[in-house]
Amino acid sequence: MGALTGKTALVTGASRGIGRAIAERLAADGALVAVHYGSNDRAAQQTVAAIREAGGQAFAVRAELGVDGDVDTLFAGLEAGLDGRPLDILVNNAAIQAYDATVEKATREDFDRVFAVNVRAPLFVIQRALPLMPDGGRIINISSGVTWFATPEVVYSMTKGAINVLSRSLAHTLGARGITVNTVSPGITETDMNAWLNEGESARRVADMTALGRHGQPADIADAVAFFASADGRWVTGQTLEVNGGLFLGPTGER
Ligand SMILES: NC(=O)c1ccc[n+]([C@@H]2O[C@H](COP(=O)([O-])OP(=O)(O)OC[C@H]3O[C@@H](n4cnc5c(N)ncnc54)[C@H](OP(=O)(O)O)[C@@H]3O)[C@@H](O)[C@H]2O)c1
């Protein structure tokens, strides 16, 4: 029996990247997983198929976040798949980066779009999930190391700062129900969002500034999420865990 046997989970943005790895890990631990995605049907079906081939249970839910009616669409699909079961674990993972949204080039449209997907959607997904969630449930929000190291893409970073605040605030509010709320904050991880990692010397440069000498893989993040989702994480709430192999721990150079 797995650590999550009998539990259910919703992972947003689970068709690819970190979300897919989280969905696979929670399913491997025994949870029935709702694999949410925005538009990439093929990737979502591949994730569901991979989970089922490994002996797990999953179903796909398509809903573009950041648009009118997004949460209604998501929960219609989620509740159909859960078929009357509660939602024990919610992982808010889906997000978009906007490489052009720097202080010089950001537009109001960029700002509204990135905040709608990365901040507004998680808040209202949580609001809608709470009535389905039993006491003792788990909420894990995916943030980013850009909340503590500076990058030019300031709008994206601002959204992740908001996610950290959301988690801490809700951990306090929802403690009365025994629901834990934590943040997992990946470092530089190899996904479609970071296609630049495959360009030139990028991977080596990231390895040089990381204590453990490489960039992250989605499964590195998923394993940390699984801890917060499990019974072992029951006494941890309101925390942000940096899962980054020791990124920027000190000066680079000879070791
Ligand atoms: N990769 C990194 O280095 C890194 C570092 C720090 C933090 N993070 C965070 O980790 C999380 C996952 O990132 P990732 O790199 O795995 O991303 P990714 O590879 O770009 O995958 C994004 C996922 O989110 C879904 N998605 C994106 N926009 C959506 C929308 N508007 N509505 C619904 N679904 C949407 C995508 O669905 P479709 O397949 O349908 O498009 C996909 O499943 C994000 O919160 C990100 O900010 C990533």
UniProtKB/TrEMBL annotation:
Family statement drawn from the similarity comment of this UniProt entry: Belongs to the short-chain dehydrogenases/reductases (SDR) family.
Membrane-spanning ranges: none
GO molecular function, one term: oxidoreductase activity
Pfam families the UniProt entry points to: adh_short_C2 (PF13561)
InterPro entries noted in UniProt: NAD(P)-bd_dom_sf, Sc_DH/Rdtase_CS, SDR_fam
Keywords assigned by UniProt, alphabetized: Oxidoreductase
Family annotation (PROSITE patterns): ADH_SHORT
Domain of life according to the entry: Bacteria
Name the UniProt record assigns to this protein: NAD(P)-dependent dehydrogenase (Short-subunit alcohol dehydrogenase family)
The species this protein was found in: Thermomonospora cellulosilytica
